[in-house]
């Protein structure tokens, strides 16, 4: 009896345990979160076609890529595309299109994306310019304003920030990022995500951010866009990956892949990148979208034979959404049927996208942010313009100021000359295509508001470079150029000081805008030389999207202000700086080379076994790491930027001579004194150099900074 009972008892225990385990597993697999439960319920109702549609992102325009999607409206209406980007027009126009979701069976709202890169209607300086402020609080505010304006017209997703580390100014996209330093880049990435997404994605004034381009896109070989990248894991982890990781830690909702390959495998189909690193190592929970047509482009890369295989490779690598190529929507059902992609992969991708929509509050109210009245109130509001003016002032970098030519006295007669002095659209970049051009304060207008003694002449065409003229259909005429030059010189001779506003056209930097010659176009340089020859002091204000080669131009300018592409408040901010209402405090975040031959050039390089310090040539210096025909040093290094005042740093006192152990802190104390005539702000930068380590370390690494340390004059 006892034995039988024991047997039965064992039988029950065993079954009970099995059942218990099953129940536990079942409950463990059940989503615990509200969004998890919601998406599971929704997905249970979805057909395979409806799930696939969620992975499809279409566009009605070819504004930022090689083609537009055909029949977009039909696709949105019939429900074969679950998301859309670059719908551009009035709030009502945008709303009408995104309301097409209501005509689909399950009425699942669309993600409605746009590249809001440096402002929506109120345009801030390009990201590279903004980064020169080193002011993450300010940068966060600019992203917040972009979200407030963009969300009010109905967008819920922005393809920003771009956090690609850039060391090669030939690459036109350097203007979109924060420059060459991973530490500063990470801080700025966090700030922008916080600005766009706010504390709560479902807030009607939040936009979901999309960090891009994962990964290492900034290292496109030879600075040629879309080119291959090749680097060691050490360099990746040390220099290129930190800003993407910082974005994930800051809770970014989505990630965009890059066009390039990494170790021979294009990012969009790179399992190491999208699954091992992103999901397993970093724990990213959002979704991954390809860049424009990247899935189709796997064929040209030579890793897929056709679009079906390309889609399979991407999904199996961990990609969730297809931007523009429509390969997934065209082939995934078949691939699942053939067992080449599992239903689980599709479910995972679909779930991540639906969860993003849930977090954005779209299931509660798909049009929660669309509010034409709010749009009217907030877009280009005085507060937004004020912030833009501050941001533009803080992004400018004073590169040279011989004999304290600057600040200008507004009693001086100023000859304002140059092709960028009296234009509005050129104050933007190619990525500010929704910016309100009419609202731009031109540099001429800005100066006139602060001085009655300004005269203006255009002086030159933007460019006379035949290749550029052909490719961009720009206009140039020799006779007119001569006439413009003569007028400008006339004006210059009658002035006390010349302000020359020169640089690059808007379409000379940005995507697919790589250049091998990155100096100011010839016809403008000619103008600069002639202006200098008048004997009047020349202040050069640069409008451009990348570090330029300025070595020769230096001698023709007494002062240089790098104003980047300054945005809506260009004129007011340039005037503030020129007249000393704002004392420039920007510091470069990308190195300015002396010559193209030095590129790639960046401050945090390693030392080599045969280091060379410029100026040490001679017999004993043979077989060192240098150029025969050029210095090693750049023209202007990372972190460089002058002020109208001067600062004196006292000696640094360290709290210890040894730093051993991860949890130890080292305190550095120093005094800083404003020794000049003006109140000013200084960004204090702390660099470290690990002298003896198991791998070679950079000669200098930024580890800490305090921006805009305000200093009253003595
Ligand atoms: C760019 C992305 C951009 C996308 C959508 C692509 O060509 O590389 O940065 O977000 O277009 O406009």
SSE inventory with pairings:
Elements: H1 2-29, H2 34-45, H3 48-54, E1 56-58, H4 72-78, E2 83-85, H5 91-98, E3 111-114, H6 127-131, H7 136-152, E4 157-158, H8 182-197, E5 210-214, H9 233-240, H10 242-249, E6 254-257, E7 261-262, E8 265-266, H11 271-281, E9 287-289, H12 297-301, H13 307-317, E10 322-323, H14 327-337, H15 343-359, H16 372-378, H17 382-395, E11 397-401, E12 414-417, H18 443-450, E13 454-457, H19 466-472, H20 478-493, E14 497-503, H21 522-533, E15 538-543, E16 559-562, H22 570-578, E17 647-649, E18 653-654, E19 668-669, E20 672-674, E21 680-688, E22 701-711
Parallel strand pairs: 1-2, 1-10, 2-3, 3-4, 5-6, 6-9, 12-13, 12-14, 14-15, 15-16
Antiparallel strand pairs: 7-8, 11-16, 17-20, 18-19, 21-22
Helix pairs in contact: 2-15, 3-14, 7-8, 7-16, 7-17, 8-10, 13-14, 17-22, 18-22, 20-21
Bound molecules: beta-D-glucopyranose.
Notable features of this structure?
714 residues, alpha/beta, Rossmann fold, Immunoglobulin-like, six-stranded mixed β-sheet, five-stranded parallel β-sheet, 22 strands, 34% helix, 13% strand, binds beta-D-glucopyranose
Characterization of this structure:
By secondary structure, the chain is of the alpha/beta class. The longest helix is centred in the N-terminal third of the chain and has 28 residues, at 2-29. Among the domains are: 385-578, 3-Layer(aba) Sandwich (Rossmann fold); 644-714, Immunoglobulin-like, CATH 2.60.40. The protein contains 22 helices and 22 strands. A 6-stranded mixed sheet has the order 11-16-15-14-12-13, with helices on both faces. Strands 4-3-2-1-10 form a 5-stranded parallel sheet. β14 (497-503), α21 (522-533) and β15 (538-543) form a beta-alpha-beta unit. Mean pLDDT is 93; it is low at 1-7. α2 crosses α15 (343-359), α7 (136-152) packs antiparallel against α17 and α20 (478-493) runs parallel beside α21. The structure holds beta-D-glucopyranose (BGC). The site of beta-D-glucopyranose has 8 residues, from loops. Residues 64-65, 115, 159, 212, 291-292, 511 line the site of beta-D-glucopyranose.
């Amino acid at each position: 009896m006892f034995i039988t009972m024991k047997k039965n008892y064992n039988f029950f225990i065993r079954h009970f345990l099995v059942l218990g385990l099953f129940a536990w597993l079942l409950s463990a697999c059940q989503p615990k979160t509200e969004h998890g439960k919601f998406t599971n319920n929704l997905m249970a109702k979805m057909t395979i076609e409806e799930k696939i549609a969620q992975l499809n992102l279409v566009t009605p325009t070819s504004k930022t890529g090689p083609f537009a999607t055909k029949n977009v409206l039909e696709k949105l209406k019939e429900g074969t595309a679950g998301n859309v980007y670059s719908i551009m027009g009035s709030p009502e126009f945008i709303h009408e299109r995104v309301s097409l979701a209501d005509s689909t069976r399950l009425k699942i709202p669309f993600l409605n994306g746009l590249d809001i890169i440096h402002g929506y209607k109120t345009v801030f300086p390009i990201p590279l310019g903004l980064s020169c402020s080193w002011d993450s609080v300010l940068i966060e505010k600019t992203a917040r304003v972009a979200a407030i304006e963009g969300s009010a017209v109905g967008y819920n997703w922005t393809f920003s920030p771009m956090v690609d580390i850039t060391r090669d100014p030939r690459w036109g996209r350097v203007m979109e990022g924060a420059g060459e330093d991973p530490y500063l880049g990470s801080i700025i990435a966090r700030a922008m995500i916080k600005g766009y997404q706010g504390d709560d994605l479902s807030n009607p004034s939040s936009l979901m951010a999309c960090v891009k381009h994962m990964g290492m896109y900034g290292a496109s070989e030879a600075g040629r866009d879309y080119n291959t990248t090749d680097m060691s894991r050490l360099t990746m982890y040390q220099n290129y990956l930190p800003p993407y990781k910082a974005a994930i830690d800051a809770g970014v909702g989505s990630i965009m892949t890059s066009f390039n390959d990494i170790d021979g495998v294009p990012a969009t189909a790179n399992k190491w990148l999208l699954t091992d690193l992103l999901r397993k190592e970093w724990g990213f929970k959002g979704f991954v979208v390809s860049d424009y047509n990247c899935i189709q482009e796997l064929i040209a890369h030579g890793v897929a034979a056709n679009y079906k295989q390309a889609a399979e490779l991407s999904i199996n690598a961990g990609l969730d959404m297809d931007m523009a190529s429509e390969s997934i929507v065209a082939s995934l059902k078949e691939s699942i049927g053939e067992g080449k992609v599992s239903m689980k992969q599709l479910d995972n991708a679909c779930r991540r996208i639906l969860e993003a929509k849930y977090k954005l509050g779209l299931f509660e109210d798909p049009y929660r942010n669309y509010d034409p009245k709010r749009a009217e109130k907030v877009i280009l509001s005085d507060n937004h313009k004020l912030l833009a003016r501050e941001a533009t002032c803080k992004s400018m970098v004073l590169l040279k100021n011989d004999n304290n030519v600057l600040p200008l006295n507004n009693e001086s007669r100023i000859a304002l000359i140059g092709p960028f002095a009296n234009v509005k659209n050129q104050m933007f970049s190619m990525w500010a295509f929704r910016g309100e051009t009419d609202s731009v304060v031109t540099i001429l207008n800005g100066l006139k508001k602060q001085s009655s003694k300004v005269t203006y002449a255009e002086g030159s065409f933007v460019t006379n470079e035949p290749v550029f003229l052909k490719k961009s259909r720009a206009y140039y005429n020799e006779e007119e150029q001569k006439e413009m030059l003569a007028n400008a010189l006339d004006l210059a001779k009658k002035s006390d000081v010349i302000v020359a506003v020169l640089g690059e056209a808007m379409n000379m930097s940005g995507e697919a805008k790589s250049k091998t010659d990155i100096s100011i176009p010839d016809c403008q340089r000619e103008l600069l030389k002639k202006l200098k020859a008048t004997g009047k002091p020349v202040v050069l204000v640069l409008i451009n999207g990348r570090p330029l080669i300025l070595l020769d131009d230096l001698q023709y300018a007494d002062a240089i202000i790098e104003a980047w592409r300054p945005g809506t408040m260009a004129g007011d901010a340039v005037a503030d700086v020129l007249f000393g209402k704002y004392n420039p405090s920007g510091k470069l975040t990308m190195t300015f080379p002396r010559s193209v031959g030095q590129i790639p050039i960046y401050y945090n390089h390693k030392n080599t076994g045969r280091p060379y310090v410029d100026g040490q040539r001679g017999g004993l210096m043979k077989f060192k790491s240098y150029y025969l025909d050029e210095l090693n040093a750049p023209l202007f290094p990372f972190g460089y930027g002058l002020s109208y005042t001067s600062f004196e740093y006292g000696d640094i006192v360290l709290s210890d001579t040894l730093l051993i152990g991860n949890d130890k802190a080292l305190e550095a104390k120093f005094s800083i004194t404003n020794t000049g005539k003006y109140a000013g702000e200084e960004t204090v930068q702390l660099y470290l150099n690990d002298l003896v380590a198991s791998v070679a370390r950079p000669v200098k690494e930024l580890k800490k900074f305090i921006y805009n340390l305000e200093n009253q004059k003595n």
